[in-house]
From TrEMBL:
Species of provenance: Hujiaoplasma nucleasis
The protein's name in its UniProt record: Probable nicotinate-nucleotide adenylyltransferase
Record family assignment: Belongs to the NadD family.
Pathway(s): Cofactor biosynthesis; NAD(+) biosynthesis; deamido-NAD(+) from nicotinate D-ribonucleotide: step 1/1
Transferase recorded as keyword: yes
Domain Cytidyltransferase-like, residue spans: 4-168
CDD domains: NMNAT
Catalytic activity line of the entry: nicotinate beta-D-ribonucleotide + ATP + H(+) = deamido-NAD(+) + diphosphate
EC number from the UniProt entry: 2.7.7.18
Amino acid sequence: MIIVFGGAFNPPTIAHKEIYHFIHELVPVDKFIFLPVSKKYSKASLIEDKHRLQMLKILTADLNDAIVSEIETEDEEFLGTYQSLLKIKNQYPHQEVAFVLGADNLNHLDQWINAEKLVSEFKFIIVNRHKKNLDKLIEKKTLLKNHKSHFIILENFHSNISSSLFRETLDPYYVDEGIYHYIMKHDLYRGGKD
């Protein structure tokens, strides 16, 4: 299975690496793709693509089956997850493609660009770190309920670390040492130039 882990990775934290290992324990993985969203996406606090890509390369340096994809950062505009997954599916035509989704994003999945095609054509690995009743949520949303078999729910992921927590504290505990040095060297998240 081709696992696609999308997100802002602003910055990549040790929790992102823990999710990588957590998924490997529970799901067969042929390739694990980190897919950072482009700066063209509407998150105002997103630092430049080149920095997030470089930090992801530092994060994945010792992960054998992991690659960092520039599909979204190379697009002229934000086209949405569906278009990105189609491109990845074309690269791996004989593999099943699954997108990693945090439980908090599941509630809005039916509002994503091309949501109907996205949910009907791809699988989703839901990382449930806040012990939410995701079966109940899926049952409430018609689009999700109609494709219930496309959701693989992974329970009991425990981590309170987030990119926003790092940005608020600049605590080196939350990121790999190499990423912390990169952040300091380039004066990121400290009010300097991004």
